[in-house]
Specification:
Blueprint (H helix, E strand, L loop, with lengths): L1 E2 L1 E3 L8 E5 L12 E4 L7 E7 L4 E6 L4 E6 L4 E6 L4 E6 L6 E6 L2 E6 L9 E8 L8 E7 L5 E6 L13 E6 L6 E7 L2 E7 L4 E6 L4 E7 L6 E9 L8 E7 L5 E6 L3 E6 L4 E7 L4 E8 L5 E7 L15 E4 L15
Parallel strand pairs: 1-24
Antiparallel strand pairs: 2-3, 3-4, 4-27, 5-6, 6-7, 7-8, 9-10, 10-11, 11-12, 13-14, 14-15, 15-16, 17-18, 18-19, 19-20, 21-22, 22-23, 23-24, 25-26, 26-27
InterPro entries: 6-blade_b-propeller_TolB-like, Regucalcin, SGL, SMP-30
Protein name: Regucalcin
Subcellular location: Cytoplasm
């Protein structure tokens, strides 16, 4: 396993951080750097790289905002929605339509991507957990075929104290209503698919483990759940949060309360690399950039175990990893 050390000089954190390794065999890791690309958010989440528009979308759940960042210009735009928004995924074939999870509703909205411009609700795909009105939608992605997978989590009051086993995982195909895939979820989180391995990877954060399901790409069905990577067995602090996958089939897992990203081989169940992030509450990651070799990372700055000073809550981009990701899939509404 590679463990890198993050350092800066001086009292004020810089905009760019560099990684250092003490091992002579890891000198190539010296090129790794992490750059802050947004100001701190309370709960940054759900990064999605749009390969067509070459921009990054993400959300700030507790601030009810959706965000658009253009690395080519440095332009950062946002707008506010009517509730806590768990994710944002573009609708396939459009430039201004998105599927979002707001409170317990999956919505299709229209937003022109300019700062402060209002978002218009075009369609309600469905409201979930009507029998448990204290939950909210937390994370969602489109699978490789354009189906939407998204889940809910139990009420959090006060911050860090969760209702257990109240959430569920749902699937939405086209304009259809949400279908429940599994229940008794604490905090529905990271999702990733591997077509070659016929695998769907999923995280229920308080399980402190990664789930693997058999995945049928033709139907979107999942089955035969097993736990493949356990935080306790690997003596890791924090909980797994958002997740993405690279073209080698390795998972990149954000660790909330762990100040790190983990590179995990889900086939061998081994931890390959641990990358420090200059924020305690690391929430999610996705590959992007023109060559899909930049890792965009969201973080939070919630006062749970103490005040989270900047750059906590910022969105970062990591370059020099030497790996690439798959294009993020858009939601196929029709």
């Amino acid at each position: 396993m590679f463990v890198l050390e993050l350092k800066w000089v001086g009292s004020k954190p810089p905009e760019i951080f560099y990684f250092y390794s003490h091992s002579e065999t890891l000198l190539d890791q010296m090129s790794l750097k992490i750059e802050k690309i947004s100001e701190p958010l309370l709960l940054g989440e759900g990064p999605h790289w749009d390969s067509d528009q070459k921009v990054l979308y993400f959300v700030s759940i507790l601030e009810h905002t959706i965000h658009r960042y253009d690395p080519a210009t440095g332009e950062h735009a946002k707008t506010k929605l009517d509730g806590r928004v768990g994710f944002i995924v573009p609708v396939d074939g459009t430039t201004d339509q998105f599927v979002v999870g707001v409170e317990r509703k999956f919505l299709v909205i229209q937003w022109d991507g300019t700062d402060g411009a209002p978002a218009k609700t075009l369609k309600v795909l469905g409201e979930v957990d009507k029998d448990v009105p204290t939950t909210r939608i937390n994370d969602g992605k489109a699978d490789p075929k354009g189906r939407l997978f998204g889940g809910t989590m139990g009420n959090e009051d006060p911050p860090g104290n969760f209702e257990r086993a109240k959430g569920s995982l749902y699937r939405i195909v086209g304009p259809g209503a949400p279908e429940k895939l599994c229940d008794k979820i604490d905090i529905s989180n990271g999702l990733a698919w591997d077509l070659e391995e016929k695998a769907f990877y999923y995280i229920d954060s308080l399980e402190r483990a990664i789930r693997r399901y058999d995945y049928d790409a033709a139907t979107g069905d999942i089955s035969n759940m097993k736990l493949i990577f356990d935080f306790d067995k690997n003596d890791l602090e924090g909980v797994p949060d958002g997740m993405t996958i690279d073209t080698d089939g390795n998972l990149w897992v954000a660790v909330f309360d762990g100040s790190s990203l983990l590179k995990v081989d889900p086939r061998t169940e081994k931890l390959l690399q641990k990358i420090p992030i200059p924020a305690l509450q690391v929430t999610s990651a996705t590959f992007g950039g023109p060559n899909l070799d930049i890792l965009f990372v969201t973080t939070a700055s919630i006062n749970i175990k103490g005040v989270q000073e900047p750059p906590c809550g910022a969105t970062f981009m990591i370059t020099g990893l030497g790996v690439k990701g798959h294009p993020n899939a858009n939601f196929k509404l029709y």
